[in-house]
Amino acid sequence: MIDIITPRRRVLSPWTPLLGVAAILLAVGVFGVTQSVKQREAKVDQINRQILAEQQTMRVLDAEWAYLTRPQRLQDLMAMKANDGVMPPAAVMVARVDPAPEAKAEEPAKVAVAAPVVTPPVPAVAKAPEVVKPTVVAKVESAPVKTAPLKVAVAAPAKKVAPAKVAVAAPVVKTPAKLTTAPKIASNDYVWSPKHNDHRPQVPVMAQTVSYPKYASVKRAGVAHPIVE
Amino acid sequence: MTLFRTLNETATQIVGARGSAVETARGRLIVMAIVFALVFGGVGLRVTWLCLFQEGAEPRFESFHAGNEGSAVLAVGRGDILDRNGVLLATTLETLSLYADPKLILDAPVVARDLKKVFPDINEADLAAKLTSKSRFIWVQRGVSPQKAAAVNALGHPGLDFRSESRRFYPQENLVSHIVGYTGVDGDGFAGVERSFNAALKQSSKPLKLTIDVRFQHALRRAMLDAVTKFNAKGAAGAIVDVQSGDILAAVSLPDFNPQDINAATDDQKFNRFSLGVYEMGSTFKTFSTAALLDRVDPSLGQRFDASKPIKTGRFTITDYHAQNRVMTVPEIFMYSSNIGTARMGEKVGTPVLKSFLFSLGFDKPVPLAISEKAAPLVPNPWRDVSTLTTSYGHGMSVTPLHLIRAFSAIVNGGVLPALHIAYGEHDETRPRIVSEATSERMRHLLRLVVTHGTGSKANIPGAMIGGKTGTTEKNIGGRYVKNKLISSFVATFPADHPRYAILVSVDEPVGNKESYGYATAGWVAAPPVGAVAQAIVTLENMPQADTKDDEAIEAEMIQYIQLDAKHAKGKAQAVPSDR
Asked: Which residues of B350-359 are buried (b: 16+ CB within 10 A; e: fewer)?
């Protein structure tokens, strides 16, 4: 006994092929994006590798810089230059501003400078490679007082060695005319406390006397010798 | 479309016995289809997953640590060591090491000859022999510079290759050798900070900043080297300490060594005299016994002690090197550095008070400091009454130079004992008070007097207002004092009105010369280098001149306690030629 059953009709939805095409397109798109991401990643890797190489070079140059600016070498170089007739810069100690007499308040108050002491100075270069310009820091704490222009003598830098200027003038503080006393800087203005751990004292009047020799301004990039030599 | 429809139309359903067989087959087919679908689906998913996330792929970049936002950060290995201003003291660099595979070497003598041209130091015959050996690996040269590596590559010989190795470099050479220390072949620290901070330096590539300032360090080392050369001394120890914070700004032990070339260093060079050497510090100790008297017993400077004749206790006889043979005030005893007078002062203080005072200054245990090379002081045991007399002028108790400068800082800085720091940025929570502010000020005035009128005059720098104390001891070798083997020390602070720095220079076995009229005592040997260091610091820090009025006031105050003979009159501060 055979029952023949009417076959079921199956009709393919018109969306099916469209979906198939969309899937293929999407696949191609994803593949393309993946490839471009891969390329970009390769580029990032290449740049990273370059950064590492640069960092390694910088480390070598840093070490070399420290080696070439070690105080002993700078001192030896200084001695060598001094033999060519160049005087080593004199060590100068900056004095306090004494209260100027009232009558002379209009005149420029001179800052007395202690006599140069002949002991060989320490080359102060190891700290920072850049050339420090001579500056004058004038600190007036009390209410407006009349300050005459200050003439600050700076250590005469060696002729051939130092690029610093010889003398600089302090900024002039303009004040009302009725006050006639010159600034009185008490001795205990110079107070140092453990809070200032960076060893910079609060100095009432201070002239930057450090003059850097020429070789200190050599650009890092210009150094070519490897440290291991 | 029509194709699908046709297929569908032909599909029939069969029922009955045959029908059940067809059903079975269909069931099996469905199971198979499911299994295949699962397997292929799994494979497909996995492929997609791998494509999308690159899981298990080769690392894109080996020696790269993801820093902020994925940028490259160099793995530097052992961390750098810097001074307080960021100057490099120790660093690790990748270096190339040349090796050879003898099996690949074509013509060993030629290769050896060419390599000799690049590295003039190597033994050509030896290398040629090695290159013909049966080994597959021989080192030719370690630590090759990039230039020489390029030269080797330019030779074009097969079988030569490079390996990258980390190596520790010390650009400052000998300058900070005892503080920084050195590392062994495997990169472990063996001395100094390299040893005490070994774990931290290994774990993190962050640099370690020290309190040292290379400029101060150089100034100190230069001055000490001068003294050692001039007086033909065996060695020297010295330090500069910030008296307020306890930061060690410089510490030098001579002879020193180059940490780059540690194999060439002798044991004497490696010995750290400032923290490992214990010495009887002599008259510099009078600072402490005088402070004990003024702070704990009687603050008056005018009190008098009989120093007219030597003290005899048991087998000891205490004499003065520069005898005044009279009754003296405290400033006089301090200025002339009278042993008899100071012993009398110690007697007045008494054993328990002096002992506990010295112990409170840290003379009973090693100096707390973050380096491993530390020695414990030698304290008289048992402490008899005669120990009180001798210790008051610095005999019978041996301490390290760091002990001395730390205790000295406490006496001059206003009276609180700082901990000594070597790592930058450490601060003391609490600091024990040792003496009162008033005593500290009095002591500074006494120390200033020693420099203006007493034994330390050669350390005087105009405007720097240095105050200090000399000390000369005979070395105690095998329980007996050797007359011509001295240790000459000078410990000083400046500016004496608002002290910032303490400087110590201690010279081991100086020999007197013509310039010093044969004297090898502290006033001649150790005071000038301290003056030179103070001069350098004044220049480096742009320190203003000390107030002359302060200085004159101190002098005027002190002078009233002093019987000056013509030689030591005011204005002629030419001191006694030598000192104990």
From this structure: ebebbbebbe
Q: What's the number of domains chain A is made of?
A: 2
| B463/A contact by beta carbon, under 8 A | yes
Residue B81, SS3 per DSSP: strand
Could you read off the pLDDT of B198-256 as tens digits, one per residue? 998 888 778 899 999 999 999 999 999 999 999 999 999 999 999 999 999 999 998 99
Q: Are residues A142 and A93 in the same domain?
A: yes
Cβ–Cβ under 8 Å, residues B261 and B297 = no
Domain boundary among A68, A98, A115: A68
- Give alpha helix (H) positions in A164-221: none
Contact predicate B468/B451, CB 8 Å: yes
Of A10, A192, A229, which is closest to B145 when you measure between CB atoms? A229
**ipTM confidence score:** 0.78
Alpha helices of B245-338 — where are they, by DSSP H? 267-270, 286-292, 330-335
For every residue of B373-422, which 3-state class applies, written as one string?
CCCCCECCCCCCHHHHHHHHCCCCCEECHHHHHHHHHHHHCCCECCCCEC
pLDDT tens digits along B304-355: 888 888 888 877 788 887 777 788 889 989 988 888 999 999 989 989 999 9
**How many CB atoms neighbour CB B560 within 10 A?**
10
Domains and CATH numbers, chain B: 216-568 (3.40.710.10)
Catalytic residue among B196, B253, B275, B283: B283
Give the range of the structural domain holding residue A61, as residue numbers without chain letter: 13-68
Give the pLDDT of residue B3: 52
Tell whether A119 is covered by a domain.
yes
A171 and A124 co-located in one domain: yes
- Among B293, B334, B332, B298, smallest CA distance to B560 is for B332
CB atoms within 10 A of CB A168: 17
Instruction: Give per-residue burial for B439-473: e unless 16+ CB within 10 Å, then b.
Output: bbbbbbbbbbbbbbbbbbbbbbbebbbbbbbbbbb
CB B93 to CB A59 under 8 A? yes
Nearest one of B504, B515, B497 to B448, comparing CA atoms: B497
Model pTM greater than 0.90?
no
Max Cα–Cα distance, chain A, nearest Å: 143
Q: B321 by DSSP, 3-state: which?
A: coil
**Same domain assignment for residues A52 and A107:** no
Phi, psi of B475 (to 5 degrees): -70, 140
Q: Is A76 inside any structural domain?
A: no
Residue B544 is given by DSSP the state B
Same domain, A102 and A166: yes
Helix B437-453 × helix B401-412 angle, to 10°: 110
Residues of chain A with C-beta less than 8 angstroms from the C-beta of B549: 187
B70-84 pLDDT, tens digit each: 556 667 778 899 999
CB contacts < 8 A, A to B, total: 192
